[in-house]
Fold:
Amino acid sequence: MAINPYNRGPLRTLSVLVLLIIGLYGLLGAVSTWGTASRAPKLGLDLSGGTELILTPKLVGKQVINQGQVTKAVDIIRARVNGSGITEAEVSTQGVGDIVVSLPGTPDAATVASLQKSSQLRMRAVLVTGSAAPTPVPTSTGTPTSTPTAPATSTPKATGTATTAPKSGFPPALSAAAKAPTATATPAPTATSPSASPKPAAKPTNASDPAWVTPQLEAEFVALNCANPKSVEAIVDDPAKPMVTCSSDGTEKFILGPAEVQGAEIASASSDVQQSTGGSTGVNEVVLNFNSAGTASFCNVTSRLVSLPSPRNQFGIVLDNQVISAPVAEASLCAGTASITGNFTAASAKALADQLQFGALPMSFALQTANQISPTLGGDQLSRGLLAGGIGLLLVVAYSLFQYRALGFVTISSLLIAALITYGLVTLFSWSQGFRLTMAGVTGLIVSIGIVADSFILYFERVRDEVRDGRALRAAVETGWGRARRTILISDGVNFLAAAVLYALAASSVRGFAFTLMLTTIVDIVVVMLFTHPLLSILANTKFFGQGHKWSGLDPERLGAKNVTYAGRGRVTIAARRAAAEGNQS
Amino acid sequence: MRSFSQFGNDLYSGKRQIELVSRQKTWYSISLILLVLAAAGLFGRGLNIGLEFKGGSEYQVASVSNFNNFEARAKAAIGTVNPGSNVVVTRIGTDTVRVQTENFQSTTVTDKVKSALASQFNIGLNSVSADTIGPSWGASVSQQAITALIWFLILVSLLLAAYFRTWKMSMAALIALAHDLVITVGIYALAGFEVTSATVIGFLTILGYSLYDTVVVFDKVRENTQDAIGNGRQTFSQAANQAVNQTLVRSINTSVVALLPVASILGIGYFLLGPGTLLDLSLALFVGIAVGTYSSIFIATPVLADLREREPAMKELKKRALRYQAAQTRNASAVASEGDQPGQAGTAEAGNRDVVHASSGGVTSATGRPLHPYVQTGPRNQPKRPPKSKR
Structure:
C-alpha cells in the first residue's frame, strides 16, 4: 500500500520516537545484562525499609565550610559506613552542608555515633612498629633499647631521592621538597636516657621519647588485631596521649607518640612526578605545603626524627585513627614544604594527596533526623501508592474518553508511551545516578499523569477551536498545533522551573518528587512533539476523523461548525452564524 | 455531554459570554473575604505544625490486629522506657497505630521503645518504624523553602516577562499566585491539617501549578488582545474577557484532569495509608490546584485588565473600540429599520473574534418576526452588505 503523502512527515517523526525508545531500552538491556543495572528502578528506603540519617556539620563560631570539604566529608563518611560492614549504603549531600546517609536495616547506636564524629588528621611520631597480627612479642622494640641518641651530625641530602621502601611503600621516604634548603640538623633531643624498662612514672620529654610506651600501652599493642574491625574501631585518638593503631591497609601496627602536627596545619597537598635537574625521575611523590604554624611544628618534628634510629625516624600520618602513611624523615624540613616518596603509583599518590588535603574535617556532625522504616510498612506504602496511581490513571482515561470520545484513545496511547519512556529513564537514572524511587517520587509520577494529560487537552482544545472556526480537520490540526505548541512549551517551562528550583533547594525526602516532576515534564514535551502530534496528523487523514465522525470527538457539527462558507473580508464566520441561527430557531 | 460541549461552543463563538472581567469588583471582594478569613485562621488559630518542625520521635506500628484500648497500651509501652513523657497516640488507616512523643534523640532509647511497642502489640520488630527529628530540622526545611520560593519568584517573573513581553502579565500572574498561596495556607490553618515538610513542598509545587493555569489563559489573552489592538474593535477588557471565556472549557478540563490523580492519591492516602508524605503532598496539591484554577479565571485576568486599561494606548483603544461598536449598533439598527435583511451586520459582528454582545440578540424582521436562517443570507449565499451610504 502506498503511503499517503500527507503522512510521510508524521511517520518520519514517529520513527524517530520509535528509535529513541528502542535506543533507551537497548541501553537499559545492555547495562543490565553486561553491567550492574537492574531492570527495575531501585527503591528508596521508605519503600524498601531501612534507615535514613541526616547529618549536619557542627560549626564553631563563624566557621564556614566549602564544597570541597563537604565532598570529602561524604567520601570519608562513605568509607566509614563501608568499613563498618554495611553494604548498599548511600551517602549524598543535601542543601548547603547536610549529609544524608541511607542504610538498609537498622544501624546500632555505635555505628551512628561513629558516623557523626569529626574526621581528624594528625601527625605523630612513630615509637614502635609491628606486623599486624597480635603476635606475642612484636619486636625487640617492645622494650625501648635505645640509649640516649648521640647528637646527630649527619647532613641529609636536600634532593631527597627516595629511599627504596622495604615493603609496599612502607615506610616511604619523607624528604625535602624539590628546592628545600639544606637543613642543618638540629641536635637530637637531649633526652634523659630512659632506663631499659621505662617506668610509667617517667616523664617523656618529647614526642619520640620511648618513655611514652607504658606496659599498659604495650599490652594493648600486643593485643591489637588489625584484621578485626571491632578492635580497630575501638581505637581512641587523643591528641595529647600516645596511641596504638593499625595502618589503614591493616598490614602494620604502630605505637605512636602524641600528636604534633594537626591536619588543619597542612595548607595544601598535591601529587606529582618528581623532577630533578635531569628532568623527570619517574618517581611519584606527594608534595605537602604547611601554613606557618605547621611549618614550625613540622620543622621541629623532622629535625628531631631525622637522627633517630628506625623505626623511630618514621612519622605516622593518622587519619580517623588509622595510619595512612608512615614516611621516614630524611632531613629536617623547615621550609614549609615536604615531599613524600616511596613506591607510589600515580593513583595512590593522588589518593594520599587527597587524604592529606581534605583529610582533616575540623567538624563533627549533629544527627538531625533518624528515620527508620520497617520493610513491611514500606512494602505497604508502595503497593498502595501503585494502587492510587492505577486509579488516577483510570479516572483520567475515563474522563478523556467522556470528553473527547475517540480522541481519548490518543490520550491513552500517549500516556502509555509517556509511561514507557519514564519507566526506562527512571531505571536508567537509578543505575547511573543512584536515583532511588521514594514515596515522594511515586507521588510525583502520579501527579504528573494529570500534568501530562493537560498538554493533550491544550492541544485538542486548540484543534477544536480551529474546527469551530470552520477549518478542515487537516488544516485545523496544523494551525492548532502551531498555537498549542507555544502554550505547551511555556507552561511546561514554568512547571519545569518550579520542579528544578525545588530539586536544587529542597530536602532529600522530597527531592524524588521534584526529580520525577522534572523528568515527566521533559517526557511530556517529547511525547507531545514526537507522538501525539504526528499521530493526530495521521488520524486527520483517516475517514473516521477527517470527516468528523460522530464519535471522533472532532465532529464539526457537534462543535458548531459544519458548512464552511466564506464570509467576505477574509473572514470565516460560519460557526458563529450557524450558532446564531440556531439560537434564533429556539 | 451534549450540553457541556454546546456550552463550550457557545463560549467560543461568543454567543454566550460570562462577564468575568467587567465584574472584577465582585471577584475581588469574594477573594478579599477569603483572604481575610485565611489571615484570621493563620494568625488566630495558627498552623498545626507537625512533628518535623517541633522535634520529637514518631513511631508507626503496622499490621496491628487488636485495637482494644490501643491508646493506653501504647502509652504503657512508652512509659516503661521513658515514664512521664508526653505521648500522643492516633490510629491511622486500618491497621496502623501512630505514637508521637517528645524528642528522645538517642538511638538506644529509640530501639528500646520499638521493642516495647512491638511486644505490647504482639507483632514483630520489623513492623515498627521510628522517626526521630531534631528541632533544628524544621527550621532548616523552612529556610530552604523560603529560599526556594524567592528563587522561583525571581526566575519565573523573568521567564514570564520575557515570554509575554510585558511585566504586567508577570505581575498579574504573581498576584494570583500570592492569592493562591495565602488562601491555601489559610485553609490549612482553618481546617487544622498538619503541616509537615511534605506539605511545604506541596505548597511550593502549587506555585508551578497555579502559574501553569494562568499562563494558559494569558496566552489566549495575548492572542485576542493583539487582534483587538490591530483592528480596534474591542477594548482590552472585552478581548481579555473573551479569552477567558474561550479558555474556560479548557481550564475546567485541565483542572479536572490534574485533580483526578491527586484525588485518587488523597483517597488512598486517607483511607489506607494514613499520614505520610503521600497524603500531605496530595492534600496540599488538591487544595492548591482548586484555588489555582479559581484564581487564574477570576483574579489573574481581571487584575491584568485593570493594569493594562490604565495605559494611554489602551485608553485610546477603548475609545476606538467603543466608537466602532457604537457605529456597528447604529448600522445594525438602521439596516433593521429599513427592513432590508436585518441582522446581517449584527450577526456578522457577533462572529467569533469581534463580538458586540449587546447587539447580537435575535435576528428578526422589521415586524419582529424571527427570520429563517436561509433568509438571513443573501442570494446564492453571498453575504449581504448594507448600502454604501450606510457603511
Remarks:
- The CA atoms of residues 545 and 552 of chain A lie 6 Å apart.
- Chain A has a mean pLDDT of 73.
- DSSP finds 15 helices and 14 strands in chain A.
- The first helix of chain A runs from residue 8 to 33.
